[in-house]
Design a protein that fits this description.
Elements: E1 2-8, H1 11-23, E2 29-32, E3 40-45, H2 49-60
Antiparallel strand pairs: 1-3, 2-3
Length: 65
């Protein structure tokens, strides 16, 4: 099962997050929020949730976004 870990305000940021987390070896999906042209969900397999949360924290607090 896939779990939402973050909702991005733009597609560009969502793609940057996907790229960085994928480079770290995580399976990532990006999905546009229904009814919204401006928000995108970042999803990961539930089994990777704990590990990816630490990586997401690093990505969000880096200057690469």
């Amino acid at each position: 099962m896939w779990t939402v870990i973050y909702i991005s305000p733009t597609e560009k940021i969502a793609e940057k997050i996907r790229t960085q987390l994928t480079e770290e070896g995580f399976l990532i999906k990006v999905k546009q929020v229904s009814g919204s042209k401006r928000q995108f969900e970042i999803l990961v397999p539930e089994s990777e949730l704990d590990e990816v949360q630490d990586a997401l924290h690093r990505v969000l607090h880096s200057s690469h976004l």
